[in-house]
């Protein structure tokens, strides 16, 4: 069996298309400081990964990721057998606490190399595919002219399902929801994401004010650690989705025990890898939670990892579209060929691994961490 021979990285700071900048209660995402990862094995197979981290989410970015990879994560896996990937993930956990988005970048590259070795799509190596098409939605933020512009741009990009960023002031947010509802249409799928921005009383008030405008769900109404507060808000006519409350499996168990949510938003980054997303989806669905794949503004490699994980994830919601929008988000993608997405769905291909290649000028930037 082949071993992990080398690990290369390249930092990248792409700019989000101005019309799709997401301004939520957790900050404004207008550019990304991401790190791309490439592993190579002793039999000449390579795998790609992406550290799609932001400081506001986990205290990670391209700089911290490169430091941790050089200092601890690469030494933990270089020279080791590629299979089983789960053993390499365990070694990374032993070498460094936390840093899930950084570990996810390496894990994705390892899984990509493993699936390429088998000659199958990553979704197959992960135990799927249970589906080959994943419905997606686009985030909307702002109000007035700005909101109108975002709605129009998203519609022109092909999107037909949306979520509005709220979590500021309930009265003002309710007015913005009314605006958004008018713009996207009465029967269009439109959810809400508060990014943990409300105090519990404000969240209850927001639900009262917004319920009759038919929002499809309410994501992370209160602070990530306030599971009792989340529990309180269930059963008021809106599905409660846990996002920031759930990074890894231990968080998911806490949410299940506290009966804090109706659905959970899993990220390849928060979970520290695509294999763990699938395991968490299994656990969530066994306890009756709907599963969606959430986004941290992934580029093409990260979006491909989301897609394959979503296609292998048990219990993926048939009601709430996922957030796999990497193909649309940035001025320029990093892939040779973009993911197969029309804005309504993203479709799985049959190429081995993630099924993506980076553009030549991006590939030229990779440097070994050895
Ligand atoms: Mg969210």
From TrEMBL:
Q: Name one GO biological process term.
A: amino acid catabolic process
Lineage, top-rank taxon, reads: Bacteria
User: Which residues does the UniProt record annotate as the domain Mandelate racemase/muconate lactonizing enzyme C-terminal?
Assistant: 144-240
**One example GO MF annotation:** racemase and epimerase activity
Supply the alphabetized keyword list.
Answer: Isomerase, Metal-binding
InterPro entries, alphabetized: Enolase-like_C_sf, Enolase-like_N, Enolase_C-like, Mandel_Rmase/mucon_lact_enz_CS, Mandelate_racemase_C, Mandelate_racemase_N_dom
Q: Sorted alphabetically, which Pfam families does this protein's record hold?
A: MR_MLE_C, MR_MLE_N
Task: Describe the family membership recorded for this protein in Swiss-Prot or TrEMBL.
Answer: Belongs to the mandelate racemase/muconate lactonizing enzyme family.
Q: What protein name does the entry list?
A: Mandelate racemase
């Amino acid at each position: 069996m082949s071993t992990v021979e080398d690990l290369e990285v390249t930092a990248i700071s792409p700019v989000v298309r101005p019309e799709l900048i997401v301004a939520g209660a957790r900050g404004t995402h207008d550019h990304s400081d991401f790190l791309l990862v490439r592993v190579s094995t002793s039999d000449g197979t390579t795998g790609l990964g992406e550290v799609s981290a932001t400081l506001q989410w986990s205290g990670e970015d391209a700089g911290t990721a490169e430091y941790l990879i050089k200092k601890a994560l690469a030494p933990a896996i270089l020279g080791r057998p590629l299979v089983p990937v789960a053993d390499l993930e365990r070694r990374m956990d032993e070498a460094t606490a936390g840093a899930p988005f950084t570990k996810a970048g390496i894990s994705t590259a390892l899984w990509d190399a493993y699936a390429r070795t088998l000659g199958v799509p990553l979704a197959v190596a992960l135990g799927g595919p249970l589906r080959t098409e994943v419905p997606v939605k686009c985030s909307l933020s702002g109000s007035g002219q700005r909101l109108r512009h975002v709605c129009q741009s998203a519609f022109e990009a092909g999107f037909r399902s949306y979520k509005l960023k709220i979590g500021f002031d309930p009265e003002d947010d309710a007015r913005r929801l009314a605006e958004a509802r008018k713009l996207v249409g009465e029967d269009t799928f439109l959810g809400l994401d508060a990014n943990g921005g409300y105090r519990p009383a404000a969240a209850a008030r927001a639900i009262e004010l917004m319920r009759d405008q038919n929002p499809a769900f309410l994501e992370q109404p209160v602070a990530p650690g306030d599971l009792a507060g989340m529990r309180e808000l269930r059963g008021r006519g809106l599905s409660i989705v846990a996002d920031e409350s759930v990074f890894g499996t231990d968080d998911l168990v806490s949410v299940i025990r506290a009966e804090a949510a109706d659905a959970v938003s899993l990220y390849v980054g928060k979970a520290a890898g695509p294999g763990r997303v699938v395991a968490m989806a299994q656990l969530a669905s066994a306890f009756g939670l709907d599963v969606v794949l959430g986004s941290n503004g992934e580029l093409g490699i990260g979006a491909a990892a989301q897609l394959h994980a979503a296609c292998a994830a048990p219990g993926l919601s048939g009601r709430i579209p996922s957030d796999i929008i990497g193909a649309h988000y940035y001025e320029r993608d990093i892939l040779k060929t973009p993911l197969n997405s029309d804005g309504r769905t993203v479709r799985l291909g049959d190429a081995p691994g993630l099924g993506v290649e980076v553009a030549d000028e991006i590939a030229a930037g990779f440097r070994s961490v050895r």
